[in-house]
Amino acid sequence: MSPSPVIEDTLKTIYHLQQEAGPPVGTSDIADRLDKAQATVTSTLDRLEDQELITREPYQGSELTDKGRTVAVEVLRHHRLLETYLADHLDYPWELVHEEADRLEHHISEEFERRLAETLENPRRDPHGDPIPGEDLEPPNQDPMRPLSACEVGDRVVITRVSDRNEDDLAYLADVGITPGTAVRIVDVAPFGMITLDVDDTEQAIPEGVATSIRVTSLNDVDDSVSVDHRGDA
Amino acid sequence: MSPSPVIEDTLKTIYHLQQEAGPPVGTSDIADRLDKAQATVTSTLDRLEDQELITREPYQGSELTDKGRTVAVEVLRHHRLLETYLADHLDYPWELVHEEADRLEHHISEEFERRLAETLENPRRDPHGDPIPGEDLEPPNQDPMRPLSACEVGDRVVITRVSDRNEDDLAYLADVGITPGTAVRIVDVAPFGMITLDVDDTEQAIPEGVATSIRVTSLNDVDDSVSVDHRGDA
DNA sequence: GCCATAATTTAGCCTGTCCTAATTTAATAC
DNA sequence: GTATTAAATTAGGACAGGCTAAATTATGGC
Lengths: 234, 234
What we know:
Two copies of one chain form a homodimer.
Chain A: H1 5-21, H2 27-34, H3 38-50, E1 54-57, E2 61-64, H4 66-89, H5 97-104, H6 110-119, E3 146-147, E4 156-162, H7 167-175, E5 183-189, E6 195-199, E7 202-206, H8 208-211, E8 214-218
Antiparallel strand pairs in A: 1-2, 3-8, 4-5, 4-8, 5-6, 6-7
The structure holds a DNA duplex (30 and 30 nucleotides).
């Protein structure tokens, strides 16, 4: 039996938290992300452990098993293929793809996944610039990126990822031209981390909170993974 | 809150049974179609009644309310749009579209539905020849069709619908050229209802069980709804 | 009209997923 | 080292959706 949406969402969340801070991940961090009560997550984690999708130490935290990671990465592949498809073939606006993909990722078949990948010619990155795991379900490499908030005045960088966050922010960023593949220059870093960028010869100010979820690569170490047209084939 | 897949599937089944035999529909007919125990369906029907999606008389049967019918028709629209899309844009083989659409129909948003319809240019029929309900969610008209099993030797008819049934049968029928829009002639009706057809100058024998789920229109009363290219725009 | 049978509901139980409130454990301050 | 506090678990309850077995109702034959 394939895992339920609740199980898959929990695995996906643990995966992301492990990427950000390393294992073990705490119960309340998971609960916060999923917007569920802690006690609900505790009982879900018990079931995950029964199914050998995670290992855990009570009061310490949880960690994905290989089996659990594979499930998480497959869901991630679904999510990113769907986002790419929605944007490229159904003309979805950038900021709406996340919500739709978040639901559908749990319900598409292997067949659907294959045909999606084929139709898209095995894309390597989704519309936010995030890497799409391959058919082998190896976890994608971490890119050599830093948050925009860590840049200094004068830096010339390429926007590499604009992570999923709320729709309004994404719509605004797309509107002013801040999308993966765009080259920008840091014009100013003001108090409280407010950053001013030169985007296509126009200045745009970005508050620090938003800047932390935008990843960039220095123009010196640009590789194929951050070329402007980042949808290569396999 | 939008209805769960279980609720939607039950409404869809009642809708189909009402079309076939008229209300009220019996509990065990629903249970058979859904492959659930009768007692399970009884408790689901109680919940449907609480939500005013059906009316029912214990031991007599159930009937959709306007509200219930609208939900059923919307799910039907999702199903048929998805089938059309899978076949036309993702290159799904005819016989696989049903299963995938049956899952996804419960999980797509209104936005997805709109973009699907737009991309397909508001198709009126799905790949099986079934009518696709419009945005207004009016139940589609019943076509002036009869089952292939009711034809007589010498009749010239157009295949109008080949209803969803098991994948192997559909694959076989597609293989021998029996798909919506094809004109055929009845060559022979043998004992036990075995029917022989002339399809593109080749004879094909179809057992009665299969022939009952194939609908045809006489070549005399062909209207736009059964033209060979049946995907018109609105 | 009564009886056998088929259809249906009721009773009772289970699991998954959710919650709040109470308790326990771990970590931190001092 | 103890006291406070934060994190996590346990206790207990709700509801949806599933089941089997037992009881009930309707129906068709005669």
